[in-house]
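Postdoc handover notes: sequence design on the structure in folder B. Input C-alpha cells:
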C-alpha cells in the first residue's frame, strides 16, 4: 500500500519504519528542516526499549522514584518500571535512520496544507496524521481540538546523576526537576495563561538561572476519527498522560495498535478507544483526588506508593 505519514515525530517515524518493513510504500512529510524539533523532557519508562531496542544506548541517567512535594507533605512514588533520561532528538534521529534503511522516503521542509491533503486522499491508499498538537490532519478532518497545557523547560548547568526526580504540584499541573546526568532540567506543565508566571516565580524563589528555555503546548484528550482512509496517531490524537503530560510511550502504543490493525482504520479506532478511554478518564479523577487531599488534607495520604509510571489502572498493552 502507498502510505502518507504527516509529521516526522516519534510515532510517525516509528510507523514509517515498521510499515516499510512490511513492504508498504511509505512517504513521510515533515514541515521542519530536520528531526528533533519537539520540546520534550525526555523521561521515558523502560517500555520504550521494547519498541526501539536500539535506544538503550541513548540513556543518560536512570530514575527509580519521584518525590511529590506538597506544601505540608512529601510523597514518594516508586516506579514498577524503571525510567530513563534520553534526548528525544537522538531517538528521532535513530528512528529516521531505521525508517530510511527500511525503505521509507522522508521529506523535510514540507508544510502540508488542506489542499495537499485533498490531493493525497486520491494519491495515497492511507494517510496518518502524526503532526503534533496543532495537527493539520485533525483540522482537515474537522475534528475538535484537545485541551492544551503549556510545557516550559530549561537547563541548569549542574551535574546531577541522582536516581529520583522531583515535582511540586501547582493548581492544575506541576513543576519538575529531572537529573539528566551532566545537567539538571527544570520545567512546568500548567494552564497556558498561568504557566509562565508560576514558573518565573518558582525560579526566583529557588534562585535559579536557566539556559535553553523552551516551551510547547501539550495536548490531552482522545481524538481518533472513525475514517476508512485517514487517521491520527500520537500527539495529534491527544494521547498524552493526563497526570504527567508525557506521551512518547502512549504514542508508540497507539502506533502499535495501528500496525496491528493496518490497513483497517476502523478496527484501529475501536481498539484504541477501548484501551485509552479508561487510561484517560480514571487517572484524571485520581489526580484531582490526590491534589484535593495533598493541598487541603494531606495527612490521610500514604507517604509512599508504588505505581506503574505509564498506567494508573491495571489495563496493559500486550505486545
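Designed sequence:
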Amino acid at each position: 500500500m502507498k502510505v502518507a505519514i504527516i509529521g516526522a515525530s516519534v510515532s510517525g517515524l516509528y510507523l514509517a519504519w515498521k510499515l516499510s518493513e512490511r513492504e508498504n510504500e511509505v512517504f513521510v512529510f515533515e514541515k521542519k528542516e530536520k528531526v528533533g524539533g519537539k520540546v520534550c523532557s525526555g523521561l521515558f519508562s523502560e517500555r520504550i526499549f521494547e519498541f526501539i531496542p536500539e535506544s538503550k544506548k541513548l540513556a543518560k541517567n536512570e530514575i527509580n522514584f519521584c518525590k511529590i512535594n506538597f506544601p505540608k507533605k512529601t510523597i514518594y512514588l516508586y516506579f514498577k518500571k524503571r525510567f530513563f533520561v534520553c534526548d528525544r532528538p537522538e531517538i528521532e534521529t535513530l528512528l529516521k535512520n531505521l525508517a530510511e534503511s527500511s525503505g521509507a522516503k522522508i521529506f523535510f521542509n514540507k508544510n502540508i496544507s488542506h489542499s495537499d491533503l485533498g490531493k493525497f486522499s486520491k494519491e495515497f491508499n492511507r494517510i496518518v496524521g502524526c503532526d503534533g498538537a496543532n495537527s493539520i490532519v485533525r483540522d482537515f478532518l474537522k475534528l475538535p481540538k484537545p485541551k492544551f497545557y503549556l510545557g516550559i523547560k530549561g537547563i541548569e548547568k549542574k551535574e546531577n546523576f541522582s536516581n529520583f526526580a522531583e515535582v511540586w504540584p501547582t493548581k492544575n499541573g506541576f513543576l519538575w526537576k529531572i537529573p539528566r546526568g551532566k545537567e539538571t532540567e527544570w520545567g512546568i506543565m500548567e494552564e497556558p495563561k498561568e504557566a509562565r508566571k508560576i514558573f518565573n516565580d518558582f525560579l526566583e524563589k529557588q534562585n535559579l538561572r536557566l539556559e535553553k528555555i523552551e516551551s510547547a503546548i501539550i495536548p490531552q484528550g482522545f481524538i481518533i476519527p472513525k475514517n476508512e482512509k485517514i487517521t491520527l496517531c500520537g500527539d495529534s490524537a491527544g494521547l498524552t498522560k493526563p497526570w504527567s503530560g508525557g506521551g512518547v510511550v502512549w504514542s508508540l502504543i497507539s502506533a502499535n495498535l495501528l500496525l496491528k490493525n493496518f490497513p483497517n482504520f476502523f478496527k484501529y479506532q475501536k481498539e484504541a478507544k477501548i484501551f485509552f478511554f479508561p487510561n484517560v478518564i480514571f487517572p484524571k479523577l485520581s489526580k484531582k483526588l490526590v491534589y484535593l487531599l495533598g493541598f487541603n488534607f494531606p495527612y490521610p495520604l500514604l507517604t509512599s506508593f508504588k505505581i506503574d509510571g505509564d498506567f494508573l489502572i491495571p489495563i496493559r498493552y500486550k505486545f
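Context for whoever picks this up: Residues 145 and 174 are 23 Å apart (CA to CA). Don't rerun without checking with the PI first.
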